Amino acid sequence: MRNYFFFLKKELKEGIKTYKLPILLCIFFTFGVLSPMTAKFLPKLLPSLLGEGMNFEIPEPSSTDSWTQYFKNINQLGFVVVILIFSGILSHEFEKGTLINLLTKGLSRTTVLLSKLTYMIVVWTVNLVLSFLITWGYTVYYFSDGKSPHLVSAIFPIWLFGCLLLSVFLFSATLFEKSSGSLLIMVLFTAAGLFLSIIDRIAKFNPFSLVQKNLPFIQGTEFLSDYLPAMCISFLLIVLLTFGACKVFKKKVL
Q: Can you tell me where the transmembrane regions are (predicted)?
């Protein structure tokens, strides 16, 4: 347990030293600020941007628009940024040979992987919560309309799906010594999940449905309990992928 916290502390220090954590923090802070501001001020700017000849009626913005923009930023950009920030979490260790000395001194390979997964999940959680709270604060300030009552129901599936992506990435990182291989696995995993999303019969079993129903969750038109199978499968995949990563890493020649 002592080695686990030692390695976790090492990861956090390295993330700060290489500016990866501050960069990620700034990006998610921007998501939090930009989402409600875009919803508030973009409708006012559009007429001047499109010219006076364009006559159309723009509906009054609401809290729904703010959260729609937030979910779009996280689902389209947030996940990509997180994976890119962590893309070298194992490959850099392989290239520099930094793990060899630690492992020869008795550090468990399982401890290494679990500390790295914990590090990624903690960083992901902190940044997601930060951006969420900022968005919530500005949304309440700009739009006190009560149209988004179920906030936790919308943010929890995003967090869980992010943890799943990180476990997929960690497993793929144990298979390849270069980050390009891990990123390829992530692309294939995403493509497969999106393809299965078009099959309505299995939507509630597909983990990707957790990031496709955020607005209905927040409005209460869809209920999180209906997607319990997808959440259970996500948890199961996280456990299996973590177990598989440890097994592969134990047999890997460094």
A: 21-39, 74-92, 113-134, 154-176, 183-203, 227-249
> How many whole angstroms separate alpha carbon 11 and alpha carbon 116?
7
Residues 6+ apart with CB under 8 A from 211: 71, 75, 157, 158, 161
Cβ(90)–Cβ(174) under 8 Å? yes
Mean pLDDT of 103-122: 87
Q: What is the pTM of this model?
A: 0.90
Give Cα separations from 240 to 127, 228, 236 (angstroms).
Answer: 25, 18, 6
Q: Classify residue 130 as exposed, middle or buried by CB count within 10 Å of its CB (0-12, 13-18, 19+).
A: middle
CB 186, CB 168: distance < 8 Å: yes
Burial class (CB in 10 A: 0-12, 13-18, 19+), 84: middle
pLDDT band at 5 (very low <50, low <70, confident <90, very high): confident
Per-residue confidence band for 57, with pLDDT thresholds at 50, 70 and 90: low
CA 178 to chain CA mean position, Å: 22
Q: Quick one: which of 170, 167, 187 has its CA closest to 235?
A: 167
Residue 231's pLDDT band, with cuts at 50, 70 and 90, is very high
Residue with tokens 């490959």: 91
Q: What total number of domains does the chain contain?
A: 1
